[in-house]
Predict the structure.
Amino acid sequence: MKPAAFEYYAPVSVEEALDLLDQLGYDGKILAGGQSLIPAMNFRMAQPHALVDLNRVKELFYIKSAPDGSLLIGAMTRDVTVEFDKMVAERLPVVTETMPLVGYYQNRTRGTYGGNLAHADPTGQLPTISVALGARAHIRSKTGERWVEMDDFYLGPFTTILEPQEMLVEVAYPALPPRSAASFKEFTRQVGATPMVGVAVLVTLDDKNRFKNAKIAYLGVGEKPYAATECVKVLLGQEATAEAIRAAAETAAQKDVDPGTDIHGTADYRRNLVNVLTRKALTQAVQSAKK
Ligand SMILES: Cc1cc2nc3c(=O)[nH]c(=O)nc-3n(C[C@H](O)[C@H](O)[C@H](O)COP(=O)(O)OP(=O)(O)OC[C@H]3O[C@@H](n4cnc5c(N)ncnc54)[C@H](O)[C@@H]3O)c2cc1C
């Protein structure tokens, strides 16, 4: 299939792109890496009147440290750039380790970090990790800007709080406190396939190896990245032992998630995956936080 006819704009600055988005309103659509949008257009599932291509907007391609210690990733940074970046490996090793799971190398050479987050695929690894890491989205429009917690960024499948005239310009990952570590685990039936269930955890231990803080987010158990609460209550204040981790994983599976049954697996099977993956992710994160 070929896409329906569309107008094409190739701005060279954020200002110019925001002007265009403002003029076009609901008729305009941002084109980033095109790895999801172009197939959707070819299948005519998406028929935007006009594309605003960000590939020439050089100011959106960066990875840098902010004065407050956050790590900033510009929206048009290619996935593969993030995958092999030394600062990301040092400060967000969970992102480096997970990147090879995000589709295939070929997609990642063109796909962008911001495009992935904005696409809001409910089975996307990066949105779930971003929620667990407490990341914030920097959103701009012609008339202003706002910062939004990634937890609040997602509304449902392929739906975010972005208005048509808005652009995700960057995402900020706060510096982690000492004795913190994150981990991501997923289950797929084939290498590179859509994960059935995935979990991202972030833990902080105190000097007696007790859980001082924890954030646990899931993909594949709901319509958007899901931040669990009950299993976190089980962990906080407890010594980081295998028993505490097992209890939290059990609680996550029984109380936090309410997965459905579909052709890929039953609700019970997904609950079991939640249990197993949570245990594995917490165990790895605790080991790293203790180092
Ligand atoms: C074979 C294959 C396998 C894949 N496997 C996975 C996988 O396992 N996990 C995964 O997470 N993804 C996967 N993807 C998706 C891929 O990672 C894309 O990077 C991602 O879906 C979209 O990024 P993009 O830069 O290509 O965005 P595009 O396709 O250009 O855009 C996607 C959507 O986001 C909007 N958008 C893009 N940038 C912005 C912005 N800055 N501000 C506001 N809106 C914006 C667009 O308007 C569009 O609606 C796969 C893709 C393919 C083709």
